[in-house]
């Protein structure tokens, strides 16, 4: 799970932060660098109501990635398929770990599409704001005074 602090529309659980702190602690004890448990990501605002979430997933195929939304949560799962030619490697520095990333979607945010291109998985998000919640400009008329008319029923 990931915590997103830079985007006000997405939030996540506190477990991610605890696992990150444990990973950093073990890394300090062993002297090795902590391994990221999930792919790095970017969130970008494209227009007033459109956003895109981009995950770095080099080497992953579309058939190995699954995106789903259930109950206000966006979940992205990466599960590697078995490779028939898994021998001959001298060094494997590209992460091959399966992952699961989950984000809380606020009310009225929906996923409108996804694309995988050059190792980047882009998920399109749309925030629908009902007309009654959109800002309205109220005209100020300086020429006329407002009159209070008592209700006839009173």
UniProtKB/TrEMBL annotation:
UniProt keywords, alphabetically: Chaperone, Stress response
Domain of life: Bacteria
TM region positions: none
InterPro entries according to UniProt: A-crystallin/Hsp20_dom, ACD_IbpA/B, HSP20-like_chaperone
Residues of the signal peptide: none
Family the UniProt entry places it in: Belongs to the small heat shock protein (HSP20) family.
Protein name: Hsp20 family protein
Organism: Intestinirhabdus alba
